[in-house]
Structures are given as structure tokens and as C-alpha cells.
Amino acid sequence: MDNMLLALIIFTLANWRISFALTSPEQDGPFGLLHWIRHFVGVRYNELGDMYATNEVAGAFTCLWCLSVWVGAVQCALYLMSPDLVLILMAPFALSAGAIIVDGK
Questions:
Q1: How far, in Å, CA of 39 to CA of 9, rounded?
Q2: Is residue 39 helix, strand or coil?
Q3: Is 70 helix (H, G, I), strand (E, B) or coil?
Q4: How many other CB atoms are found less than 10 A from the CB of residue 26?
Q5: pLDDT 10s per residue in the chain (105 long)?
Q6: How many whole angstroms separate alpha carbon 52 and alpha carbon 69?
Q7: Is residue 44 helix, strand or coil?
Q8: Cβ atoms 95, 18 nearer than 8 A
Q9: pTM (2 d.p.)
């Protein structure tokens, strides 16, 4: 049970960090990767810099609540395939989320 609780905490923090990064126009990521992903799925910006969606998939990338459901689904699918590997892959995102929460900005 302790391992399941730890996995749930890691997945929760990682889900928030990944979803927030993908839906936040202020975050471009390393080498503009997040901006590229948003553009690829159809997110565009108006002259004021506000995001808007050009299709249904892009709509999820403009809504933290919407995208977090899909990120969680991918996390669960990956966990079913390789629990240990996906926990290791999610740990840096969870640690980043923890640092952001502790920083409080």
C-alpha cells in the first residue's frame, strides 16, 4: 500500500507539472519544445498573445483541467505497461512540481 501511495503522489505532482507546462503560454520549454508541441496540435496566439484553439485537440491544450485528464490517462496506460520505468520517468516532473510548490511563486 505504501508503494501505491507513493506512486499516486508522484503521478499527481507529475501530472500537474506536465499539464501546466503544456497549457501555459509563458512556458516554451527547452529549445522551444513546449511551444512547438502546442503549435503542432493547433494552438495559435492572437495579437494580444492570448491562446486559442483551431481544433478539438488544441482545445485540450488551452485548458489545464481538460489536458490533465488526458495526461493522467497516458500515465495510467504507461504504468500498466512498465510500472517501475514510468515512476522513474515521472519523478523529475514530480520533483519539479514540489520545488515550485515550496517556492510559492
A1: 30
A2: helix
A3: helix
A4: 7
A5: 578 899 999 999 999 999 999 999 888 889 999 999 999 999 999 998 889 999 999 999 999 999 999 999 999 999 999 999 999 999 999 999 999 999 986
A6: 19
A7: strand
A8: no
A9: 0.89
